[in-house]
Protein: Ligase-associated DNA damage response exonuclease
Amino acid sequence: MPTPLIQFTDRGLYCPPGKFHIDPWKPVDKAVITHAHSDHARPGSNSYLSHTYSKPLLELRLGPGIYETIGWNEPVWINGVKLSLHPAGHVIGSSQVRLEYEGEVWVFSGDYKTENDGISGAFEPVKCDVFITESTFGLPIYNWKPQEEIFRNIQDWIMQNHSQGKTSVLMAYSLGKAQRLLPCVEATGLPIFLHGAVYNVHQALVAAGHKLPAIQRVQQDMPKDIFKGNVVIAPGSADGTPWMKRFSPYSVGVCSGWMQVRGNLRRRNADAGFALSDHADWNGLLHTIKATEAKKVFVTHGFQSAFSRYLNEIGIEAAEVKTEYGQEETAEEVEEKREEG
Structure:
């Protein structure tokens, strides 16, 4: 049996002929990074290769280091392995990793979504022999409404709060969801304030040349009235903390795919929930896998057991793989607290 082009090891995904890892969860010599979320990009490796857009985010989160970058569809050769990055549509800079060696092609999806959000790059399915896919929302219940419809719902909620003199506090990841929300909120014409962790990501992207709407950082000495009726974007880690008191009276809206299940809104004790996700839904996952024409599919984090079983039932050879990905919420909270500090 030939050696697999990607092996699943205790350090992460490893390409033996290329002698590099993809999104390793332990320090390695050379790490190829799909995107800058903390469960996929971890500190300590000797060098990193990512999409150009990810570099400022990796520098923000991992600190100084050796960062090589390439654009989408710009192949490089590493020890005879042809490597290229392709849009994943998850967050700014997020990429799928395509590997080609001795006539065989493997693709690791990283995290991805199939709807073009207008900011993260339009997802492109990549034909391959073996496809490694996430399955964060790999159950039929997860079926997203179009972004345009969700944005209208958010805007209506914001304007209703505004008419009642309430501050609208939107809970969203500091990297990805927060930037995606900015054009939606900007359309209301109301001032936008950012939590420190969100602001730091915002500034890193602006400094790198990304055009994002005008915002203000929430400052300790700001008068309370400045927030009244306006909009604050903050990470979930800020909810329920003393930091929130300055916005009273306020209404909390959680932006997450988990809001598709009504009970999760009650558990979060929020006023509104918007099922806005940066991951593919059930249909997006299935359409993508079929579009790759892969002969074999490995399913990683999420509902990998149920999803891989379904793929086998419909005639697509699949197996589940245990990884340390998928702890996005916990990892992001750690980063958000560090970035705010």
In short: The two ends are 51 Å apart (CA to CA). Residues 7-141+279-340 form a domain with the Metallo-beta-lactamase; Chain A fold (CATH 3.60.15.10). The mean pLDDT is 94. The longest strand covers residues 81-87.
